[in-house]
Amino acid sequence: MEMWFYEKHIPGAGICLKIKKTLYSKKSKYQEVQILETEEFGRMLVIDGMVMTTERDEFIYHEMLVHVPIFTHPNPENILVIGGGDGGTVRELVEHRDIKKITMVEIDKDVIDASKKFLPGLSGQLNNPRFKLIIGDGIKYVKSSTGKFDVIILDSSDPVGPAKELFSRDFFKNVYRCLKPDGILVAQTETPFMDKEVIKKTYKILKKIFPLVKLYFAPIPTYPSGMWSFAFASKKYDPLVNFDIERAMDKKFPTKYYNEDVHRGAFMLPEFMKRLVR
To answer: Smallest Cα–Cα separation from 117: which of 32, 48, 33, 56?
Structure first.
């Protein structure tokens, strides 16, 4: 008997993937965590019935989330990741040898444990000596943290359940406080096709807190609509004006999606996306 995974994105559309087998399924303290073996996209992390990442296309999301801010900031040494339990963001950060410390705050230890066992291609750097893991609430962490970070990366799930408050005004104010005077925040901000109100609300909040806020995007096949957006919010640096193209071109590690042209092109928005944040 064939098995199929179906995620409904909106009432009239969704994604359907053929499943070979279920590798992991557990109801954690916070959410339903599954890892499924798909026929076309390899192993797939699913949380509360929503696709978080797949082996086949995860590189696009993680490379765009990490390398855009890191190649914009001139001296990114101390990085905070909120969420990111699959380990893909940390994997990309570790490639930057100038980064001295990476702290990740993930609320659900079961996501990390499952990823370590079944997604080693993503989670393989979670034992890196420059990496520190905190199992806890990212919202509480930035509220009470006295540390000052060069870059904060919000690698959260969709704004429902435990991740809902990660898109709030109070949270972003605390993130601003945790950043150094020239710090950068990057966050995933959903699909411009199906989550227009999320993007409008998020950018409205960010623009009242940060002096520079820009939207950029990338194609991610297994995410709703196949088109995904990211917020770049900065106290000082512009991702186009301050982009260190020489450092990006001379990077000492391979990428599968990100390059210097993609960096600049990701901020060249089609008109309907410009209207969302205008």
So the answer is: 33
